[in-house]
């Protein structure tokens, strides 16, 4: 399962300048108020998603294929957000953040057969069950570097309501890296916006995480009036898509750095661009070695796990931009690339991704808390990865037994309706061409109904 964003504008912990303050969306209505004056924060959410697809063309399938017969599945996730401010002065702010979470139900085809899977809330290992678990436990500090302060949106990831315009921020503890990196106010929130893994996150960013989407990390961030710089080090899982983390930083670790510039291409509108780079060190295998061993009859089947090496390095980068076009009309894009020779290890099986989309606020038709969104994403894998799947190899998500390669193209659209206080309903459709990069299978239409409660 991947991280589940809380119901607030996913633009980082706080607006950093006046333009952002004006452009940031108001917090989503909830059932209960969250007073700014209190040192404590208590909130919660519940997200239930019904997804289904009908039969589609499939001359063959394998162990990790999207089922072609048609199916429906229900997933649910509940999160309790707690926070306590230990220091409250704007220049020196310190807080503890705690999340308890429960995730249950299933995804279609047990979350197999798609690189851009259709539901961000799904746990990829259903044997874990729905027993509550610790999702986040973070010590978050803010240290001012000047006297000027700006207002900030109070929420589950940051409780301060005013922060220094120039500041250092530190986070240490258990968290999800997309809580801080690769944020996008149009395409990061799976509870009120898009559902697809490679729409809400950069699919080529193989970010450090266990199978539920969390890791232990330390992140440092510098924020100025118009730009920010972030660096984070995190623990990697012991095996691909594993639940256990490797606590030896000498053996395995993830390094992430991101530069963000808040600049608009249009006068009087808000905009931002983010450039992300990462390097993962872990016990990873090489697709080329697995392919060669199979072709030399050393392995009975292509098996990447037989060719893993400690200290293997996987690296990549991403571009993330958003731009307000008119009041209530916004666009965004992402591009991601990784070297693709080492196995997909923590997030999904994507070596390159391109995405474009946007949203339209319901204020135009007198529904200020409604939203319409559209996005298109195209995912790809490198030649060694393609050959591995063509020969019958299995990744932790993909494996049709053979492969006629093509890019996996996904178009997603949603409409979110605000029903009452913290109650929301959404209709979502995802049209998937070449599921699992296989031109022999598909087209697939996946429909979804989402109910969201914000407490």
Task: Provide the fold topology.
Layout: H1 18-23, E1 40-53, E2 71-89, E3 92-105, E4 133-144, E5 149-151, E6 162-164, E7 167-175, H2 197-200, E8 215-223, E9 227-234, E10 253-261, E11 271-285, H3 287-295, E12 308-326, E13 329-338, E14 352-361, E15 371-380, H4 383-390, E16 408-420, E17 423-433, E18 442-454
Antiparallel strand pairs: 1-2, 1-18, 2-3, 3-4, 4-7, 5-6, 7-8, 8-9, 9-10, 10-11, 11-12, 12-13, 13-14, 14-15, 15-16, 16-17, 17-18
Helix pairs in contact: 3-4
Would you write up a description of this structure?
The chain is mainly beta and 455 residues long. The chain has helices at 18-23, 197-200, 287-295, 383-390; strands spanning 40-53, 71-89, 92-105, 133-144, 149-151, 162-164, 167-175, 215-223, 227-234, 253-261, 271-285, 308-326, 329-338, 352-361, 371-380, 408-420, 423-433, 442-454. The protein has a single domain (18-454), classed as Porin (Beta Barrel), CATH 2.40.160.10. A 16-stranded antiparallel barrel has the order 1-2-3-4-7-8-9-10-11-12-13-14-15-16-17-18. A two-stranded antiparallel sheet has the order 5-6. It is globular, with a radius of gyration of 21 Å. The protein starts with 17 loop residues before the first helix and ends with a strand. Mean pLDDT is 93; it is low at 7-24.
Write out key terms for the chains shown.
single chain; 455 residues; mainly beta; Porin; 16-stranded antiparallel beta barrel; two-stranded antiparallel sheet; 44% strand
The gist of it:
With 455 residues, the chain is mostly beta strands. It contains four helices and 18 strands. Strand 16 and strand 17 (423-433) form a beta hairpin.
């Amino acid at each position: 399962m991947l991280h589940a964003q809380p119901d607030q504008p996913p633009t980082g912990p706080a607006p950093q300048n006046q333009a952002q303050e004006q452009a940031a969306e108001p917090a989503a209505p909830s059932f209960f108020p969250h007073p700014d004056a209190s040192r404590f924060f208590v909130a919660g959410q519940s997200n239930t998603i019904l997804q289904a697809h009908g039969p589609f063309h499939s001359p063959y399938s394998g162990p990790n294929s999207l089922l072609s017969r048609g199916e429906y599945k229900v997933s649910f996730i509940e999160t309790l957000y707690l926070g306590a401010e230990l220091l409250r002065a704007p220049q020196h702010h310190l807080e503890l953040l705690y999340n308890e979470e429960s995730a249950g139900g299933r995804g279609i085809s047990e979350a197999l057969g798609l690189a851009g899977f259709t539901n961000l809330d799904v746990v990829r290992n259903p044997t874990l069950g729905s027993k509550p678990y610790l999702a986040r436990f973070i010590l978050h500090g803010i240290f001012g570097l000047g006297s000027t302060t700006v207002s900030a949106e109070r929420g589950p990831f940051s409780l301060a309501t005013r922060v220094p315009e120039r500041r250092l921020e530190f986070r240490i503890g258990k968290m999800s890296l997309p809580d801080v990196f690769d944020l996008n106010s149009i395409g990061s929130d799976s509870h009120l916006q898009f559902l697809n893994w490679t729409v809400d996150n950069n699919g080529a960013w193989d970010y450090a995480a266990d199978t539920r989407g969390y890791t232990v990390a330390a992140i440092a961030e510098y924020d100025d009036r118009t730009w920010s710089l972030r660096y984070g080090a995190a623990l990697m899982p012991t095996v691909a898509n594993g639940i256990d983390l490797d606590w030896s930083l000498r053996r395995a670790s993830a390094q992430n750095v991101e530069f963000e510039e808040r600049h608009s291409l249009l006068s009087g509108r808000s905009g931002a661009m983010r450039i992300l780079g990462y390097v993962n060190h872990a016990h990873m295998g090489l697709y080329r070695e697995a392919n060669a061993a199979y072709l030399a009859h050393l392995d009975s089947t292509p098996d990447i796990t037989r060719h893993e090496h400690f200290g293997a390095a996987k690296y990549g980068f991403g571009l993330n931009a958003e731009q307000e076009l008119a009041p209530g009309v916004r666009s965004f894009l992402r591009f991601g690339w990784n070297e693709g020779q080492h196995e997909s290890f923590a997030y999904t099986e994507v070596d390159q991704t391109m995405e474009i989309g946007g949203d339209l606020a319901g204020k135009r038709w007198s529904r200020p808390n409604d939203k319409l969104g559209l996005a298109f994403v195209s995912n790809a894998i490198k030649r060694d990865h393609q050959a591995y799947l063509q020969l019958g190899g299995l990744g932790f998500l993909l494996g049709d037994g053979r492969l006629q390669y093509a890019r996996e193209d996904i178009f997603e659209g949603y409409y979110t309706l605000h029903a009452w206080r913290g109650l929301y309903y959404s209709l979502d459709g995802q049209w998937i061409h070449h599921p699992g990069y296989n031109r022999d299978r598909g087209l697939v239409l996946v429909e979804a109904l989402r109910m969201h409660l914000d407490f």
